[in-house]
Write a structure and sequence with these properties.
Length: 166
């Protein structure tokens, strides 16, 4: 990623605050690409909390990402929602901490947000829970029009065989 990173937060001043200090930062980003992951309408908040061992970041974000419906094969915007909390420990306070509070005071949440967003993408994305999919006989998008093939039950290969026999 190059240039301005809106998920990079300047949190140095929070470390200087007393334990119990909370700062909520709203997030509102129209469009952002995290490496290979395009996100639209990214919104939510990051709450930074000064705790005795460091600073915790509580991230709650929602976004849309382009996807293709497995039923009708049409492109659509998949809604994603993530929610996680991480502790950024002051060095020396917790030797086994997973994340250390950056000396620069610059906390880049982009890699973690990307990771959580990728995990939030469903394995089988559908444009709508009641997507009717494609007609197995003629391939028409059954959300858009009725081709009447759905009345015929059974294997489409049998339908072909039946047509040959007639
Ligand atoms: Zn669909
Ligand atoms: Zn059909």
């Amino acid at each position: 990623m190059s240039g301005f990173n809106p998920l990079n937060f300047n949190v140095g001043f929070i470390a200087a605050e007393t334990v119990g200090y909370v700062r909520e930062i709203p997030v509102e980003i129209a469009s952002l690409t995290l490496q290979d992951l395009p996100l639209h309408a990214l919104h939510g908040s990051v709450v930074f909390d000064r705790v005795s061992k460091g600073v915790t970041a509580h991230v709650h974000l929602e976004a849309l990402t382009p996807a293709e419906c497995i039923r009708c094969l049409q492109p659509f915007e998949q809604a994603l929602e993530i929610d996680f909390t991480e502790l950024y420990a002051f060095s020396g306070k917790m030797p086994d901490a997973e994340f250390i509070f950056p000396e620069s005071g610059q906390l880049n949440l982009a890699p973690l947000v990307r990771e959580y967003m990728l995990l939030a993408i469903p394995m089988h994305a559908v444009c709508s829970p009641d997507c009717k999919g494609l007609c197995p006989v003629c391939g028409a998008n059954m959300n858009e029009h009725v081709c009447n093939h759905e009345e015929e039950s059974g294997d489409p290969r049998l339908a072909v065989l039946k047509a040959l026999l007639e």
